[in-house]
Amino acid sequence: MYHALEVAKLLLRFAYDDDDDITNLKLQKLLYYAQGRFLAAYDEPLYVENIVRWTHGPVVPVVYHEYSRFGSNIISRPRQSNESRFSARDLRSISATYHVY
Fold this sequence. Notes:
The protein has 4 helices and 2 strands. By secondary structure, the chain is mainly alpha-helical. The chain starts with a helix and ends with a helix. The mean pLDDT is about 95. Strands 1-2 form a two-stranded antiparallel ribbon. Helix 1 crosses helix 2 and helix 2 crosses helix 4.
């Protein structure tokens, strides 16, 4: 199991590799879908943090606060994602979530 910030950095890397723009709102929705798909596929959570209900949708507060300085603007390229920390299965699952949603 991972931390949501690790998964968020990986999702951001996928977005920038695909030359896609991503905001905090979109990142939160991707984290929500990634957790749900992972739970459905493997009957275990992808990351340890809880998802909470906010006005504009599901939020992982620690990730929201990490990127809140961008407001509703596009999040700039992350310095690094520790892709090597993820198993091949988990990378495939997160990548599939990103590319589907």
